[in-house]
Design brief:
Strand content: 15-25%
Helix content: 40-55%
CATH topology of the largest domain: Beta-Lactamase
Number of strands: 10
Largest sheet: 5 strands, antiparallel
Shape: elongated
Distance between the termini: 122 Å
Number of helices: 14
Order of helices and strands: HHHEEHHHHEEEHEEHHHEEEHHH
Radius of gyration: 41 Å
Strand order of the largest sheet: 2-1-5-4-3
Bound molecules: iron/sulfur cluster
């Protein structure tokens, strides 16, 4: 039997009550009778009378269920998209709750941890990782971040499932819930193994290069390295001596004559310009400078950018001897290679030249002994 209302209500009151069941226009009044009333207006009057509540309107319930379904679908799609984005990040990422239980991770983390995300869910790190040092570090960081929310970056070593050690930079931060309270931690692990190795190699190579340069500076032959504007990058005291007393005096104030203009030091400076412009590897010529006969070998260090030279004073008594002279030329040839490598290092700070430079040092030591 259909339900009835006793009271009469104004059009405004009825329309207002209809909005409670999301009926805003006349066309939405479908009068389906699902609520037990003949019309939606009768149901609205019953609500005004306090006899019914909006939840009794079956149409409204359907709408609410539809909305919930849509929201759930959107949420699923959003979560899927978030996971896709996380999986696209090459660095391992894991997020945990405040107690350190894993909530989720990305593919890169699965690879580094050797475990699937479903198998780490709700587990603490200690339940699936046997890296004691890393686990303790993680606990310490969590405790510290809860006290001082923000971000922490630490360097540490972890193992790949295969057993290879890698050096990582762990970036860990707190994430907050909707109310702004700390809700958990997110960790990103950056593999810096190669960077660490490179910086070690660079430091060794730099030290070796500096050592090699100090050996070059002790060579009896003069050597000089210049850039494309003929500014001196490095030279030794034998070079300053060959350039004359004034230059030698300057080199005592400015060792290596760094930054000095070769044009004001060496009258045959155009030989350097010619070599750099030609792009040739090397050029040897006998010249006379300050009344001394000099064999100069100019060589390219970096094409069109840097050049070096070894200068041999042919008037030196020991060089006058033909046999000794040949030997000296041999030394120049060997040193040429050495100087090229060292000069390259000085300019480029190359990282993987340790072995080359070790042999360079040996080569120089051998030459000195000879
Ligand atoms: S169930 Fe809702 S839509 Fe159907 S008649 Fe009742 S009030 Fe109107």
């Amino acid at each position: 039997m259909e339900k009835k209302t006793k009271k009469k209500y104004s059009e405004t009151e009825i329309k207002q009550a209809l909005t409670f069941i999301e009926i805003f226009e006349t066309k939405d009044e479908i009068d389906c009778k699902g609520c037990g009333y003949d019309t939606c207006r009768d149901f609205a009057a019953a609500m005004l009378e306090g006899k019914e509540t909006p939840s009794k309107c079956v149409e409204l319930s359907k709408k609410v269920i539809e909305k919930l379904k849509r929201k759930e679908k959107e949420l699923r799609e959003s979560l899927f998209l978030n996971q896709e984005i996380l999986d696209a990040v090459p660095a391992p990422i894991i997020y945990e709750d405040k107690e350190g239980h894993a909530i989720g991770c990305n593919k890169a983390y699965e690879e580094i941890a050797g475990i699937k995300r479903f198998d780490i869910k709700d587990k603490k790190l200690t339940e699936y990782s046997d890296n004691k040092a890393y686990n303790e570090l993680n606990d310490r960081l969590n405790a510290s971040l809860l006290k001082n929310p923000g971000k922490q970056v630490v360097e540490t070593v972890v193992k790949y499932p295969g057993g290879d050690d890698i050096t990582i930079e762990l970036h860990k931060a707190v994430f907050a819930d909707r109310a702004g309270r700390p809700a958990g931690f997110v960790s990103i692990l950056f593999d810096i193994t190669e960077r660490v190795m490179q910086s070690r190699e660079t430091a060794i190579a730099k030290d070796t290069a500096e050592l090699s340069v100090s050996l070059l500076k002790k060579m009896p032959s003069g050597f000089v390295i210049v850039d494309d504007s003929l500014k001196i990058i490095e030279s030794n005291s034998a070079f300053a001596r060959l350039m004359g007393d004034d230059i030698l005096a300057i080199s005592e104030i400015n060792p290596g004559l760094k930054g000095a203009d070769l044009k004001s030091v060496f009258s045959d400076h155009q030989l350097f310009t010619a070599l750099m412009q030609s792009g040739e590897d090397s050029y040897t010529k006998d010249i006379v400078h300050n009344g001394k006969k000099i064999k100069i070998t100019i060589f390219t260090i970096e094409k069109n950018k840097t050049a070096g030279a070894i200068l041999l004073d042919l008037s030196m008594p020991e060089v006058k001897n033909e046999e000794v002279r040949k030997r000296a030329e041999e030394v120049i040839r060997e040193n040429l290679d050495t100087v090229q490598k060292i000069a390259y290092l000085l300019g480029e700070n190359a990282s993987k030249t340790e072995n080359v430079l070790s042999s360079v040092i040996r080569l120089l030591s051998d030459n000195d002994k000879k």
